[in-house]
Amino acid sequence: MAASSSLFSSSSFQGVMSFQNTKLCASYSNFVYKQPMHLKRSSQNNGTVSCRALEVDKSSSSYSVGKKFQVTDVIEAQQFDRDLLGAIFDVAREMEKIEKKSPGSQILKGYLMATLFYEPSTRTRLSFESAMRRLGGEVLTTENAREFSSAAKGETLEDTIRTVEGYSDIIVMRHFESGAAKRAAATAGIPVINAGDGPGQHPTQALLDVYTIEREIGKLDGIKVALVGDLANGRTVRSLAYLLARYNDVKIYFVSPDVVKMKNDIKDYLTSRNIQWEESADLMEVASKCDVVYQTRIQRERFGERIDLYEEARGKYIVDSRVLEVMQTHAVVMHPLPRLDEITVDVDGDSRAAYFRQAKNGLYIRMALLKLLLVGW
Question: Do the Cβ atoms of 77 and 206 come closer than 8 Å?
């Protein structure tokens, strides 16, 4: 399913529609509808795809079903404009209320999510699985698809996706190759969520990061953000930069060793959006100015055999008590985790250490995305 697709409109009708060899199906009720539905293949319909009509509450916000949520797969941060981000954050706040209830919601009862992780993951995989279960859905999971799936036998990604979509209603995938999520989405007939594609992007991390900044700082316009660490290979900082560019009067500072500086494509994008950015080698000076210090680890797995370059980069910029001393009282330290030694443990007790709250916010954002992609607003 492509990251964007056309809108369909029609006069009102009721019932269930079937299409032969189609990727999208839609129900209509006197409005334009463009939202992926729960697709099921039946042995009784000769391979057609059936689509259940959904009851729609048309009294909701401007993001009512069919009007605005035109994202069918979550592949890259550029898919989300400012208004859509705000609407998703509203849903995430509702998900927080649901998460606090027991035994939980049944919004996604009857839906199955498949997680395909070709790279190691703890927080992302578990938060997606928790999100699905807290909304009443079920999970099919593989933790290390690179080693313990048919990929080890040489099966292509496309064949894997075609197979897995027959077992599930939505696929969450992490892959070691940049662009793999886009390939998966182009193949699949169900929604695909990019949970990280090599050094490419990690859009759901960026969504939870912006959500966290808004909750912690109280605003997104006019903020100053320091992106620190492995900026060349860091898919989290790349995706975050794209989303920060949606807001006004933002300034971004890039603080990194020379060997892992931010790539020009992100710098050019920010310039095209009139977003101020600056490279600096002085973390202390930058930290004193910023609302957010977003630290990342130097990623050993991205250096291949160049251990010398990895050793040159690691340990150069560390957030410790000295950095906290120069930070403003309202500012926060964030990190996509896992951390190694780039944030010292004595920082954890400071109220400005937001990284574990940040990780929890990932649950709410992913609950919101699963709900929106599978049943709409």
Answer: yes
